[in-house]
Design a protein that fits this description.
Helix 3 runs parallel beside helix 4 (155-169) and helix 5 runs parallel beside helix 6. The strands form 5 sheets. The protein has a 7-stranded mixed sheet with strand order 4-20-19-21-16-15-14, with helices on one face. A 6-stranded mixed sheet has the order 6-7-8-13-9-12, with helices on one face. It has a 5-stranded mixed sheet with strand order 3-2-5-1-22. It is built from 6 helices and 22 strands. A hairpin with a 2-residue loop joins strand 17 and strand 18. By secondary structure, the protein is of the alpha+beta class. The protein has a domain at 4-242 and 345-349. The structure holds 3-(2-carboxyethyl)benzoic acid. 3-(2-carboxyethyl)benzoic acid (3EB) binds next to strand 12 and strand 16.
């Protein structure tokens, strides 16, 4: 019986060996720009992401998201994917510098970011197949300058082209119920970073949002290739159902609503989250998820908005929802915030923020 657990801790706590209960599979450190704390090279993977946590009242310290599980964990690297697993659940991560793909851009006709995304996904599917973890439960994608334009096309759209090719070349479905949940957000500068959770035996059920068109069916005005993610997934672990909500924003149908009005965007986003929680409860009737139990990562475009976003989320999600705020770029220029969330797993939320 594998219990998947998550903890949010100050980065110092991780380095001093605090890691909640269970065996660490892997961790992601969200670092403030000034923090150059070196990371240990052995043990579970610790991925460095240059995306600063935000505090409502002050600047915040670097924070780490740690995934653990019961049983014995083993760690390693395969096909450039760093991983940790307990035989049943796997945490994996890959970081690729776009500069490594600059030379082949001319030959392939593909931009460096597009090639990096394709290579990252090909590596992940190869590594997980080789290790026997075929069921991806959720992806996280972080990239530099997500709204920037190069080679005549926005960088998020370049990423979508490469990601979709990575799926297709690995014979993975790019529409429908086998597409995993995901987030895709930006930081200022750093390597393309993709991390994920996978399962050996347990498939997940994809959830779509009745208020939104499936992202994999977005019209071509959002780019030549649609994004490859489902709105949410429920992983049916032996110990219970775990809900993963993808990055969720102020989008209804396929259109952004409330451009320029951050509070209205928060309200629309929460309406989308509530719709997906209801949908998850309908589809995965073993568990009833609720808004107050959500553990949320809130991506905030402008640090000055964090107080207002926090107050509105407390009003709409309640006092008990866990909120980690990160300064990040959202994949559409007119979006000022985005929220991802999970529920159903033990959680140690001790950010110290
Ligand atoms: C949206 O709904 C907002 O490309 O993996 C949210 C979650 C978004 C995941 C992705 C993008 C992604 O289209 C953006």
């Amino acid at each position: 019986m594998t219990a998947l657990q998550c903890a949010y801790l100050p980065i110092e706590a991780l380095q001093h060996g605090a890691r909640g209960s269970g065996q660490p599979l892997g961790a992601v450190g969200f670092f403030s720009a000034a923090d150059a704390t070196p990371l240990s090279a052995s043990g579970p993977p610790l991925v460095r992401v240059p995306m600063p946590p935000l505090s409502v009242s002050d600047t915040a310290g670097s924070t780490c998201e740690l995934w653990s599980a019961t049983g014995n964990a083993s760690h390693g690297e395969r096909d450039d994917v760093q991983y940790g697993h307990n035989g049943d659940i796997l945490f994996g991560a890959i970081q690729l510098a776009e500069s490594a793909f600059a030379a082949s851009a001319a030959a392939t006709g593909k931009t460096p970011l597009q090639q990096a995304a394709e290579a990252a996904y090909a590596a992940i599917f190869r590594a997980t197949a080789g290790l026997g973890f075929a069921h991806i439960l959720r992806f996280w994608n972080y990239m530099a300058d997500i709204n920037g334009e190069s080679h005549g096309i926005e960088r998020y759209r370049q990423f979508n082209m490469g990601r979709q090719d990575g799926f297709l070349h690995s014979r993975r479905a790019v529409t429908g119920s086998a597409v995993p949940a995901a987030s895709a957000v930006g930081f200022d500068e750093g390597p393309l970073t993709v991390y994920f959770l996978a399962s050996r035996s347990v498939a997940s059920t994809a959830i779509e949002n009745p208020r939104q068109i499936s992202a994999y069916q977005y019209p071509s005005e959002y780019g030549p290739r649609s994004p490859t993610f489902s709105r949410a997934s429920v992983a049916h672990l032996q110990t219970g159902d775990v809900l993963f909500l993808s990055g969720t924003a102020s989008i209804v149908g396929h259109r952004t609503l409330h451009a320029g009005d951050v509070i209205a965007q928060v309200r629309e986003t929460v309406a989308n989250i509530a719709a997906m929680v209801a949908e998850a409860n309908r589809v995965a009737s073993r568990t009833q998820f609720t808004l107050p139990e959500l553990c949320c990562k809130v991506y905030v475009r402008h640090a000055k908005d964090v107080g207002a976003i926090h107050d509105e989320l407390r009003r709409t999600l309640g006092d008990t929802a866990r909120l980690l705020f990160l300064k990040a770029d959202i994949c559409r220029r007119d979006l000022l915030m985005e929220i991802e969330a999970s529920a159903g797993h033990p959680l140690d939320f001790a950010t110290g923020i």
